[in-house]
Write a structure and sequence with these properties.
GO terms for molecular function: electron transfer activity; heme binding; metal ion binding. InterPro entries: Cyt_c-like_dom, Cyt_c-like_dom_sf. It contains seven helices and two strands. With about 140 residues, the protein is mostly helical. The chain has a single domain, classed as Cytochrome Bc1 Complex, Chain D, domain 2 (Orthogonal Bundle). It has a two-stranded antiparallel sheet. Helix 2 crosses helix 6. It is globular, with a radius of gyration of 16 Å. It starts with a helix and ends with a strand. The structure holds heme C. The site of heme C (HEC) has 19 residues, from helix 3 and helix 5.
């Protein structure tokens, strides 16, 4: 079998697995205290996430790069919930995607983070708004119930 076919088959299988195990609703309730995310932000963030982050962190927030962490599940709970949200937000806007931070504007970062939070169970509000600066994120807290 030509190597190209083997690669195609493997890719197809991986895609199938990704779909099969795909985006289930988060089973824990995650609350964002002291802040909110907007429904329009989440929708825009889904697009922007695919464009800018999915290449390493995966379309369904399950990492596809051995160095990049998942952005869902236990990794989310450990990495986002146990740390101040401001710290994670600051890290994203100053280091992600590696070497290309200049290409994303502040509102797009806010949308992407709103999308990641929503994916992990934070409810979006029609009039909600996730902010653009670490200072505004500082009073916010993620809590798992
Ligand atoms: C080219 C691959 C790549 C892309 C694209 C990328 N990341 Fe990452 N990301 C990484 C790697 C590697 C790490 C682990 C090393 C680190 O923490 O700096 C990481 C770590 C992270 C972390 C964990 C931070 C922590 O300390 O808990 C978050 C959150 C994150 N990325 C979000 C994003 C977001 C949001 C985007 C899109 C705007 C993005 N990344 C795009 C490779 C990538």
């Amino acid at each position: 079998m030509p190597i190209r076919h083997i690669l195609q088959t493997t890719g197809g299988l991986m895609l199938l697995c990704a779909v099969a195990s795909g985006a289930q609703a988060a089973d824990k309730v995650v609350l964002l205290q002291g802040g909110s995310i907007g429904t329009a932000q989440v929708a825009a963030g889904a697009e922007a996430y695919l464009d800018n982050c999915a290449g390493c962190h995966g379309e369904d927030l399950r990492s596809v790069n051995s160095n990049a962490p998942d952005l869902r599940g236990p990794t989310f709970q450990y990495s986002w919930v146990t740390k101040p949200l401001e710290e994670t937000f600051h890290k994203i806007i100053t280091t992600m995607p590696p070497g290309m931070t200049g290409e994303i504007d502040p509102e797009t970062y806010a949308q992407i983070v709103a999308y990641i939070l929503n994916f992990n169970g934070v409810e979006a509000q029609e009039d909600g708004r996730f902010p653009q600066t670490a200072e505004e994120v500082a009073p916010m807290d993620l809590v798992i119930q």
